[in-house]
Amino acid sequence: MSPPTSLQRGTGFHHLIADEYRLIAQVLTYCHAAGYAIPPLLVIDYVIALKTSPFVLLFGPTGQGKTELARLFAQALIHPFDDQYTYVNLGSSLQAPEIQDRFGWMKFVETLENAAAPANAGRLFFLCLDNLRPHDVYTYFANVSRDADGITRLVMRGYPPDKWPALPSNVIITGTLDAEHPVDSDQSALLAQINCVYMQPQWLQSNIRTVKRQQRMAPVGMQRLLLEQQYRSDEAATERLHALLGPHLDDILQPPSELMAILWQSNLTYTQTWRSTMLRAVANSFTIEGHGLFIPYDVLNNAQFAYSFVMARQLLLRLWGQPQHSAAIEALLHRQLAQLPSTTLVGLTDSLLY
Question: 303, CA 20 to 30 Å: which among 26, 117, 241, 281?
Answer without folding.
Answer: 26
